[in-house]
Amino acid sequence: MPPTDSGTSSGAEDDTLDMRPSEEPPARLAEEHLAGPTAPGRPDLLDQVAQWGPAGTVVGAFQLVPVHLERDVELIARWMNDPAVSAFWELSGPDETTARHLRAQLDGDGRSVPCLGVLDGVPMSYWEVYRADLDPLARYYPARPHDTGLHLLIGRVRDRGRGIGTALLRAVADLVLDRRPSCGRVVAEPDLRNTPCVAAFLGAGFRLSAEVRLPGKHAALMIRDRTLRHLL
User: Fold this and answer.
1) Sheet harboring 55-57: ordered strands across?
2) Which stretches of sequence are listed as region Disordered (predicted)?
């Protein structure tokens, strides 16, 4: 149960710290990541995330691209070392710290798929799409079969605090509900201290269902229901 996000402070209405790690060259990364490989031979518990395709949003074309460890670890580790991110993800340190976190999912049973979020061809965020009903989180709330969870962080500083996280959260939740017909709810558990992130989930159509004590954090259980998706 990784820390849910951080990027806006978690991934949504996004952080305030203006560190400027070296930016990625857009054209090359667009080609490499959209064409990147996915892990073969894993159980498919999430209805082929790699095949979900792009989504149009108010901030541009967005796509989840499953992580390829050798290709992506340096970039993701750089984001994890941003103090605004590490405060919630607690994965700062050498690249191998991030690599261990990614490898646990890539070599696991398929219940969690780590992805880069690519906006208009440029990787700018990190996401984990996971089966919440098969996750330790299910011990702490009344999980339903096929509940799908999200963790995220906004990596590029310039994408934080501008509502981009909110727009992407709504788009990814819609992708989950469109591509996973068996899933009735999208859930998340951001740290309650991460108020910009909680606000972003609310702006993206999630509701605050409960406050939950999880190992290591006091979380806001956020839920977006299929039955209410067009009303919120």
Assistant:
1) 55-57, 60-66, 112-119, 122-131, 148-154, 185-188, 217-225, 207-214
2) 1-44
The secondary structure element, H or E, covering residue 200 is helix 195-203
CA 84/CA 69 separation, integer angstroms: 23
pLDDT in tens, 201-229: 999 999 999 999 999 999 999 999 999 88
Rg for the chain (alpha carbons), in Å?
16
Could you give the CA distance from residue 82 to residue 38 in angstroms, rounded to a whole number? 27
Report pLDDT digits (tens) over 60-107: 999 999 999 999 999 999 999 999 999 999 999 999 999 999 999 999
The 10 Å Cβ neighbour count of residue 68 is: 18
Nearest CA-CA partner of 154 in 168, 171, 136: 168
State the chain's maximal CA–CA distance in angstroms: 44
CB 194 within 8 A of CB 171: no
The answer to whether 79 and 87 have CB atoms below 8 angstroms apart is no
Report the amino acid identity of residue 6.
S
DSSP label at residue 191: B
Within 13 Å and on the Cβ side, how many CA atoms surround 10? 26
Gap between the Cα atoms of 183 and 172, Å rounded: 13
* Tokens found for residue 199: 């606000």
Give CA 46 to chain center in angstroms.
14
Question: Minimal CA–CA distance to 154: which of 71, 208, 88?
Answer: 88
Average pLDDT over residues 46-71: 96
What's the predicted TM-score (pTM) here? 0.85
User: 27 φ, ψ to 5°?
Assistant: -65, -45
